[in-house]
User: What shape does this take?
Amino acid sequence: MSIVLACDLGGTSFRAALVDDTGAIRAQHAIAGPVSRDARSGGSEIEPEAWWALLVEACAGLASEAPALFDAVEAIAICGVTRTQIFLHRDGSSLRPAMTWKDTRADALAARLREKLDPAHPESAAVNAFHPLARLAWLREQEPEVFGRLACLLEPKDYLNFRLTGRRASDPVSLARLLAAASPHGSHDLLAAAGIPVTILPEMLEPWEQVAPVQPGLPAPLDRLAGKPVFCASNDTWAAVVGLGAMRDGFAYNISGTTEVLGVVGREPARAEGLLTVDWRGLFQLGGPSQTGADTVSWLLALLGHDGAAVGQEIDALLSGSRQPQPLLFLPYLQGERVPYWDPSLRGALVGLNRRHGPTDLAFAVLEGVACLNRVVLERAEAALGSAASEIRFGGGAAANPVWSQIKADLCGRPVVVAASKEPGLLGAAIIAFAGHGRFGSLAEAQQALVTVARRFEPDPARKPAYDALFALFRRAEMALAPISRDLVVAAQDGEPLAGLARHASAAADLHAD
Assistant: This one.
């Protein structure tokens, strides 16, 4: 029996597991992730050292729970959140907090930057507030002293690999957008145009390639892993798609954790408006991450006064009630949106409320609203590829809810298949480690051997007319309300009239307190 250490650095938690060569998780330890420090200007930051502390703590939990298995670890692989930049000095220290996937401070600068970039470069149109090029340009403009000392840019899992091995490396999937910007088009590349030195890029390795062995002298219990190979791995989406068994031509995937990710995998680098086309090392994904997902359920439960201690049971209780004949529409853009709109000023909305609507109606509206967004992405991807996806592999916390799985199948019109593993990111990282270490002949072979299916949800033809009509109304509501969302965001900035409402509310609260 072979054992690997697999880790998944998520948006709100850090999970580590000891996984055997049948794909079974033999021991697991999960810790809540660090809370980002949010600035009023749209900033979202986390100290990289906090992620390192989580790795040490999670491994300590595993070593305590299963000491013999921990000592039997043969290889390590870590996947993690992307669109998050860690800025390193030449001595390896962090220059400032990491800018997380939620950070929108570069929005205005990205618009100015696009006007200066070569419009013929294929990456120019993709530069937005979430693009690493815009983040780097923001750092250059707003924090020139920090930028002047910048030696290397890493993503969170790369930073953990660096702390484990001493080698600075990443993979072409995680840094695809920055590599695309650095690729010359004609006689220009976007990094040079933005004044960003290409020397900040780390070495590039394939996800299944070894970074280096764990170095000696690390804090306990990591010292017990000294000499074990660490594999580069990739971002959490790529790893989870492997863990779902969806890294195959013609498959779609949907990962619903804190945020929602949906894409279609194909053999050709097709392009569609608002979707990311990323080289997945022999295959291409068309789709990408949104700002919404299962987090909308947590928001709803908090709004309704639930404590969120048992999210699954609480949402099941809401869904078990009766619905009103008139459905609600929910636009799920509570934090702006990435794919497919790339607009941080989009906002959520409930449309069609009447006096008889209750918690059950709200719950169904939230699930259906996210599924409608899934369909927008799926339709764009399939149109660009010229063929329909054979099925959608569904994973993440939301995949445990059969009602949501069926809603997604009905609204998208595709079978939704839930894998047996409840932790596709961890399983995907384990598959990477096993393939890289030689336990299987290839990533495809490891995927075939270790991924099993738990349940399949077929689209219900009887629901198709109603959901097609709901989706058409959803699209109309999106187009009608997007300008209002943007106006509200702009008007609420400091110095604008609507910004005073918050101050009036605070004053009213003080009066009630008196």
